[in-house]
Each structure stands twice: as structure tokens, then as C-alpha cells.
Amino acid sequence: MTSSIHISKNRFADYIYWFCLYMFVGVVMIDPANKWLHMKEAAFVLLMFVTLLLQKGRFYRETVVSFVALISLAFLSVFTGMVFFETDVATSLPYFKALLFLTVFFCISKLSIEQLLKFNYIVGLGMAIFISVMLLAFVGGFFDMMSFIMKLSDASAVYLARRENLGIEMYMFYYATMPYMFLALIYALRNKHFIPAALIVVAIFYGGSRTPILMAFAVIGYVFYDKRNNKFLKYIIATVVVVAIVYIVYLLTSSTYSQEGDDFKFAVAKYLFNNSSLVGHGVGAPYWDPGRKEVTVSTEVTYFEMLYQYGWLLFPIVLYIFLRPIIKLYKKKNDDNVRDFAVAYLLYLINAGTNPLLISSTGLYVFACALTITAKVHEQQILRSKNITYNFAQ
User: Fold this and answer.
1) Is 166 left (phi over 0), alpha (psi -120 to 50) or beta?
2) Using CA atoms, how far apart are residues 77 and 310, in angstroms rounded to an integer?
3) Fewer Cβ in 10 A, N or C end of the chain?
């Protein structure tokens, strides 16, 4: 009797943990700017509390060192910004608040690699279904979908417009966290879940944004190339994929495709590059946006902003911290799903270069997954562990 009650308690604890984890990541992906549900901070605190209470977390050196390094570099950039550019410290506070979301690595640390990959697949697929249902209801005129979509648009979660894409005029229905679905897409393809994969690709395609579309094609090409043992067939697949990507790039960069937006990004990137220095202006430092003629702290040129904020001395170190998991994960001795995650994470980082998706709850959750998987693959030393471990049932 005692044994059955103990098992029941463990299972109930698992249910509570999984509910909190799904709620937090779901809220982050659906309402990234926290302007609609207003639940992001509360969901994060609840997940952290439940993780501590139920002893579901542990600290790996890989994750802790990376977090401390990022915090330290951010403080150092603030110091150099104050000394050399008289940057207001108050502007850096939102940046540090965002970095705190990286501590979600503690909450996912006891999941196995397969559990974490499958979890991201389920959430990413859920996003694709959510987007598809909204789009079909909007096009079909079901319910008052326009009012709902406008709420998401006001919350900076959805960008809706008409755009000509690959010669087809369609609604651009871009969800801000759409690049997160790369993790789900590569998992679906590797494990032969072709219908879910098709659904994810359609959702990304209707987003109408060039970089995610190209990344989706890159994922498809990589998986099918990697699964073929015949070298001749691999060369054929690689050639077809390269030609297809070049053709898509040509179409998507044509004069009919949002040239104004590209000009804005180029102008901002050029300004930040020209005004960067050896030491940084400080994280969160405001700068002049020459495209929109206003002062801002964030646009869509993430890495140029980081160069401006950290300076030429610190920026390479920060970039290396984000790239390091790819270097450690993409090795032949690791299994397919681990190497697939490394590829998807790399594509996410590439996409983050043209979207503010890195120093945010979304980007830092993805980075936390990368750090956690790296720690587990390489069996990093545990700084603190618990005597009790739970076997999370799939």
C-alpha cells in the first residue's frame, strides 16, 4: 500500500511539473512580448518554484558557466558604456531581466535528451496547428477571427499583410516566434512524422518571411541529404537543394519583395557598424534608427546591436558563447537527433540575426535547451545534485 501511494505521489508530481513547463513555454511562444496574456513572468516563477519544490532540477557546469559569463560580460559592457559614453544604466535593466529567463535551464535539467527534443516537437507542432487554424478561420470568415488576430497584432505577436511570395499573392501571417518551429520540423522529418512536418512547413511558408522559409528548405535538404548513404545520390540531392535555394533567394530578393524593409535594416546595420568602438556602449544602450528616424534600443539587426553594445573586444566572446553548443554537439559520435538539434539551433541563430529573437524569452529558452543537451551529451560535472531523481514517463 505504501509503495503504491509513493508511486502515485511521484506521478502526480510529474503531472504538476509537466503542466507548468508546457504552460511557461506555451505562453512564451504564443505571447512573446507579454502584451496579450500577461502571464510570462508569473508562469516562469511558478515553473521555477515547482521545480525547486519537487526537486526536478540540477545545475550542470556547462549551463552555469555560460549564464555567469553572459551576466558578467553584460555588466562589463554597462561599465564601459558609463565610463566612455555616459550611457544611462537604467536602459540596461530590461536586458538583464531578459537574461534571467536563461535560468530555465535549471527547470529542464532532469529531462532526458529525447524528452526535451520531443517536448519541443510537441510545442512546435502545437504552434503550427494554432497558426493554421487561425489562418483558415480568417480566410474562411469563421468566427470573429479578425478581431482576435488584431489583438495578437497589437501584442506584437502576429504581423499580417498581403505580399507576393514566389509569384503567388497571399496573406503574410508571420508569428513572431515562428523560427522556434525549426526544432519541431527537423525532429518530425528525422522521425518520419511527415504529416506534422508538412503542417509546420505550411505554417512557416505562410509567414511570408524570407529567412524562415529558406531555413525550412535548409532543414528539409539537410535531413534528406544526411539520411542517404549513397554518395552519388547525396551529390544529386545537394545540387538540387542548392539550385532551389539560389532560385528562391532570387525570387525573394526581387524588387517586389519588401525592398523598403531591407533598406531600413541596411541603414540601421550600417549606422551601428560605423558607430561601434573597441569598447561597448552598454547593453540596452539607445541608438538612432536612421530608417524610422527615431531613437530605439532594439530593431531587427541583432548581431550589429550586440557589436554596438559590447564593442569589438567583448562581442566575439558573446558570440562564441552562443555558438559553442553547436561546435560541441555536431560530432559524428552523437546520435542523429542530437546533431539535428545542433543544425536547427544554428539555423535559429542565423534567423535571429534579422529578428529580435536572441536576447528574449524565446531565444534564451532555445539557448537553455542547447546548453542542457550539451551538458548531458558531454557528461559535465554536476555542481549540485539531489538524491532523488524522477523517471519522467513519456
Assistant:
1) left
2) 5
3) N
Q: Are 73 and 314 in contact (CB under 8 A)?
A: yes
Residue 380: per-residue pLDDT:
47
Q: Burial code of 336-371, b = ≥16 C-beta within 10 A, e = fewer?
A: ebbbbbbbbbbbbbebbbbbbbbbbbbbbbbbbbbb
Residue labelled with grid coordinates 549564464: 67
d(CA 83, CA 89): 11
Sign of the dihedral through C-alpha 67, 78, 350, 163: positive
Q: How far apart are CA 240 and CA 312, in angstroms?
A: 39
pLDDT at 340 over 70: yes
d(CA 124, CA 240): 28
pLDDT of residue 249: 52
pLDDT bucket at 386, cuts 50 / 70 / 90 = very low
For residue 94, give the H/E element and its range.
Answer: helix 93-99
Domain ranges of the chain: 7-128+180-384
The C-alpha cell at 132 is: 493554421
Q: Which residues contact 112 (CB under 8 A, 6 or more apart)?
A: 376, 392
pLDDT of 253:
47
Highest average pLDDT, of 80-84, 88-92, 154-158, comes from 80-84
